[in-house]
Every structure is written in structure tokens, then in C-alpha cells.
Design goal:
The protein is mostly helical. Helix content is 63%, strand content 0%. α1 packs antiparallel against α2 and α12 packs across α13.
Length: 392
């Protein structure tokens, strides 16, 4: 079997950065689409684009799972050059501080535009912030929330839950070899969804959100597991075609069974096929990423730094811009394009401003300017903490 990756370059897992950047780019398409699919979002267009619903459903099953797997890998790698206390301090700066700042500075405009859209407020934003947001009453009854920043909140909690296990794992020097058993990791995901989703529907409220909480905790743990194994990434790369084939077969079969009524939505069978599809597709993404994206260039270096601030900003920009766009007499696809392009056009300059000031870098989870990278051979252990790019 031919070697897939030059061993001299294999200490840098740039492909994980590429996959993270791609997943966040997909988020821009996804959250723009939420304006047009009729799923009960914060602000919605009157005309529904039904052709978006299937690709949006597929993206929902893949985008966040991929980010949590990469975050888990980053958590494992980060322990390679710091102790448990150091990891908690670093994650508090990179996750908790941006979360708190975002709940006061970034998310409130989303809620403001939603209240305007639903005729639940008719004043200006400053009055809304002081009279409503600062009451600190949880959304949806109140106007204080983390909204899309739930991802950051859950990751921060996972640090404390997984840290004892990861410290033991490292000290015990347990060696796990990759193998076909990795495909079976879809089973815990399926069982969790089949049992807990009917009892605890997706809410992103942390407390009582047991289906989603366990789902992403498992995926984060899977990322830690993969990062701990020798040659795991190359194992995925050599089996990328098999993983992709399995994902496509499962997807095609599931669509046929749904259409014929053999499988109903929100049943244990639905949970089984959905999670088998999710996990095999993630294995394919990792495999193809390892094979074809194990390189760096100026685009990746810019996007790696920009992805976290843009993630924090993007949904607020989409909701604010979308609130204005949906009132225009344009067709729905024109509105979609305007919101998507406008969001990118707004977020990129905002990021360029954020990265130039120490305070804004801190509030958006970026490292202080001027801290040097550790060189061209820096392992990914030093560069992928969660969503942000960790170079310490």
C-alpha cells in the first residue's frame, strides 16, 4: 500500500483546519437558509423555498457533528503541551469569555430583530437592551440568550467532564489501534437519539437538553479518541471510498424507505439510519480531508484565524440583514443570495477590525497579537483547541 501522506509533513494536521473552515462556511449557507425553509426560525421569509429543505436537513446532520469531532481532537492535542489547569485557563479565555461577551454584545440584536418581526417590540435598540435584555430573563419568555453560541457553552462544559478521563488516558498511555470497529461508533449515537430525543427534544438550553448534550458529548469524545490513536487519520484516508460508499448507500436506502412509508420520522429506525449516515459521512470527510487537504496556504492561514470571530458574528448579521431583506419585493432566491453575500461582505471587514485590537481579540477568543507561532513544524496539538485556532 502506498504511503498517502509524506511522514515529514504528517505532524501538521492542516486538513482538520480545512475541515473546520469548510464546516463554518457551510454554516453561512445553512443559517441563511433558515430564513427560507419554514422551520420556525427567529426571522422568516413569507415564501418558503422547499427545494432547500432536503440539503438543509443533510447539512443539519453533518455540520455541527464535524465541528465537535474536530473540537475533541483539539482538546486531546492541547493536553500535549499543558496540564489540566492550563487547559481550563486557556479554554476559559477562548470559550467562556467570548460566550459571556457574545451574550451581551452579539446575541441581543438577534432577539431585537425577532421581537420587531413578531410585533413584540416597537421601540429602538438602546431602549430594548436596557429595558429587556438587562433583565436577564432567559429566552424565549425573556430576552437573554446564547442562541447560536450554544456550541461554545457546551464545549466549555465538556472540558470539565472529559478532562479527568483524558488525563487518566494520557497517564496510562493506553494504545488503541484503528480498525473496522470504528464504524460501530454510530451505534451509541443511534441509541442515544432513539431513547432520549422523544423525551428531551433539541433545545440548546443545556439544562434538560439530554439528547443533544449526550449526542455532542459522544462526538467530542470520539474526536479525542481519534486524536489519541496512532495512524488513525491515515486509516480513515485509506478507507475514504468505503466510508463514502456506505454513507451514500445508507442515505439512498433511507430516502426510499421514508418515501414508501416503511420508516417513519422520529422513530428508532429513523435514529438508526440518520446516525449511521452521519458517522460514515464524517469518516469519509476525515478520510478525504486527510488525503487531499494536508497542506497549508495563505487562504487557510487567514481563514483559520478568521473562522472563530466570523462564527460568533455571522448569525447576528444574517438575522439583522434578513429582517430588512425579507421585506423587499424580490423573489426568494434573490433574497437568499443578497443575505448570503451581504453576510460575507459584512463579516469579513468586521473580522479585519476585530483582529487589530487587543481587547476585541480577547473578546472574540483570539490569541494576543504578536505571539509567535512555533514554526513550520508545529504539530496540530498546538493549533486546534475547539473552534478557535490555538497556537500556544
Amino acid at each position: 500500500m502506498n504511503t498517502l501522506i509524506n511522514p515529514a509533513a504528517s505532524t501538521r494536521y492542516d486538513f482538520l483546519d480545512w475541515l473546520r473552515v469548510i464546516a463554518i462556511f457551510v454554516l453561512l449557507f445553512f443559517h441563511t437558509g433558515m430564513l427560507f425553509v419554514g422551520w420556525g426560525w427567529h426571522v422568516e421569509n413569507a415564501e418558503v423555498l422547499t427545494s432547500l429543505q432536503l440539503p438543509m436537513g443533510i447539512a443539519h446532520r453533518l455540520r455541527m457533528p464535524l465541528l465537535f469531532v474536530i473540537a475533541g481532537a483539539g482538546m486531546w492535542f492541547a493536553l500535549g503541551n499543558r496540564n489540566g489547569g492550563g487547559l481550563i485557563r486557556e479554554r476559559s479565555l477562548r470559550l467562556l469569555l467570548p460566550l459571556v461577551a457574545g451574550m451581551f454584545l452579539i446575541v441581543p440584536p438577534q432577539i431585537y430583530f425577532e421581537r420587531l418581526f413578531r410585533d413584540q417590540w416597537d421601540g429602538g435598540y438602546v431602549a430594548f437592551f436596557f429595558e429587556r435584555v438587562l433583565q436577564l430573563q432567559p429566552y424565549p419568555n425573556g430576552d437573554f440568550s446564547w442562541h447560536h453560541l450554544w456550541f461554545i457553552a457546551y464545549l466549555y462544559v465538556y472540558v470539565f467532564l472529559l478532562l479527568p478521563l483524558l488525563l487518566w488516558w494520557r497517564s496510562a498511555k493506553k494504545v488503541v489501534n484503528p480498525g473496522a470497529w470504528l464504524y460501530a461508533l454510530a451505534i451509541p449515537l443511534a441509541v442515544n437519539e432513539a431513547i432520549l430525543k422523544p423525551l428531551y427534544p433539541e433545545s440548546h438550553k443545556l439544562i434538560g437538553d439530554w439528547y443533544i448534550f449526550n449526542h455532542y458529548l459522544l462526538l467530542t469524545l470520539y474526536g479525542c479518541l481519534l486524536a489519541s490513536m496512532r495512524d488513525a487519520w491515515d486509516w480513515f484516508a485509506t478507507r475514504r471510498q468505503l466510508s463514502l460508499g456506505l454513507a451514500l448507500v445508507v442515505f439512498g436506502t433511507a430516502m426510499l424507505l421514508f418515501q414508501t412509508g416503511v420508516i417513519e420520522r422520529d422513530t428508532p429506525a429513523d435514529a438508526a439510519v440518520a446516525n449511521i449516515f452521519t458517522w460514515t459521512a464524517l469518516m469519509a470527510f476525515i478520510g478525504y480531508g486527510r488525503r487531499y487537504l494536508s497542506f497549508s496556504n495563505p487562504v487557510l492561514r487567514w481563514a483559520r484565524d478568521a473562522s472563530y470571530p466570523i462564527y460568533i458574528l455571522h448569525q447576528t448579521v444574517i438575522v439583522g440583514l434578513g429582517y430588512w431583506v425579507i421585506q423587499q419585493p424580490w423573489n426568494a432566491w434573490t433574497k437568499y443570495a443578497v443575505v448570503l453575500v451581504g453576510t460575507i461582505a459584512i463579516c469579513v471587514p468586521l473580522y479585519e477590525g476585530i483582529r487589530r485590537f487587543s481587547l476585541t481579540r480577547l473578546l472574540f477568543g483570539m490569541k494576543a497579537a504578536g505571539k509567535t507561532r512555533k514554526g513550520a513544524g508545529t504539530p496540530v496539538a498546538a493549533r486546534i483547541p475547539a473552534l478557535a485556532d490555538d497556537k500556544a
